[in-house]
Amino acid sequence: MTDQIATFDRVESQVRSYSRSFPKLFNKAQGATIFDDEGTAYTDFLAGCSSLNYGHNDPDLKAALIDYISEDGIAHGLDMFTDAKEQFLEAFERLILKPRGMDYRVQFTGPTGANAVEAAIKLARKVTGRTNVISFTNGFHGVTLGALAATGNSGHRGGAGIPLHGVTRAPFDGYYGKDINTAELLDQQLSDPSGGIDAPAAIIVEPVQGEGGLNVASQGWLKKIQAIAKKHGALFIIDDIQAGCGRTGTFFSFEKFGLSPDIVTMAKSLSGMGLPFAITLLKPQHDIWKPAEHNGTFRGNNHAFVTARAALDKFWADGAFETELAEKAEFLHRRLRSIANEYGLRVKGRGLMVGIETDSGETASAICKLCFEDRLIIETSGAHDEIVKILAPLTIDMDQFARGLDILENAFEAELGGQRAAAE
Ligand SMILES: *Cc1c(COP(=O)(O)O)cnc(C)c1O
């Protein structure tokens, strides 16, 4: 193994990041378990940063893909009509859009979340003829220049190498504490002819901020933001790339909130198997793109269409999976509250997108490191990486879930046990 790690040190760019926290060579994965080359099994509470909501190599998704490849199905189709693409669109319309009363066109963008966000922002600018986009503190929307401008994190922004223009930052829900309604502040400033914010093309928001620290926007706040967008002639964009595909307990993170965003971005778990795939959903009246105005060679990842369709059929054809997610979320919150309460800490997040806020990035990373020694893969989130974030596959079985949480509990005890004793 040491030899192989040396290859990475010698050849791969310094830009790599997760491999620094988990310096093992991984070669196999199934469900919520990932194996290193010595055969050691790790429970995966990172799940590709929520790209593997249905676990690694789900047997039904895998079988659908293997069948498709065996039959010489189209792998790459640019944006031509293929049967795999038709079947994805038909299933998405029938199982996702129609039952939720949603009327959207599906735009296939380049296969990353950032590209879906680029498309969303470009289209909002084109529709409104304006340039300014409002995004929020701690928001994360990707690292290509347009999406990066909307991203708050200074570490990522620093990589741009040029000024990031065209975005005004507004405070997210609760940014100044619970007594200050930041949506009202934004409305006041936009309504003031001397407020200094250029008329916005769009307001873009994550209902739960994934990278930015599991900050949860309330239903009331999101409704107000949507109303502000409308009042001021901007499109309302929801970035559901991380919070979508069941992570908060429903397919869309916002679907129980009575919202009707103009544009929705999706990626991460959309393919269901970790294959690159992103879409941007557009209200039909906004679909004013000229052919190829926003394109990308890899918009036709047909393997992803096949697994995405299989995932929709398997998990979203009825309400059984949602019921399972509600039970798992309840269990997870109960376990995390009990750990957090021991040390006077706070649980943040919603559904199965939750974590424990510690006092610092050092504490959170020490806890994650202890977990890894105990064969649990888990990462941090937040402006200071101060949150230990749980992103277990949604399909994880309850025994493994409980054992993973035991490891987490032990790591908190090992790192903070002294602190608790001191407080007593
Ligand atoms: C991960 C993420 C993105 C960017 O997706 P990439 O595939 O990494 O480009 C955008 N928005 C949110 C909310 C994300 O979590």
Strand content: 15-25%
How far the N terminus sits from the C terminus, by CA atoms, comes to 45 Å
The CATH topology label of the largest domain is Aspartate Aminotransferase, domain 2
Which stretches are low in confidence, meaning pLDDT under 50 for 5 or more residues running? none
Q: Count of helical segments?
A: 14
Helix content: 25-40%
Number of strands: 15
The largest sheet, given as strand count, sense and whether it forms a barrel, is: 7 strands, mixed
Q: How would you sum up the global shape?
A: globular
How would you spell out the order of helices and strands? HHEEEHHHEHEHHEHEHEEEHHEEHEEEH
User: What's the CATH superfamily of the largest domain, by name?
Assistant: Type I PLP-dependent aspartate aminotransferase-like (Major domain)
Rg measurement, Å: 22 Å
The CATH architecture of the largest domain would be: 3-Layer(aba) Sandwich
Spatial arrangement of strands, main beta sheet: 4-10-9-8-7-5-6
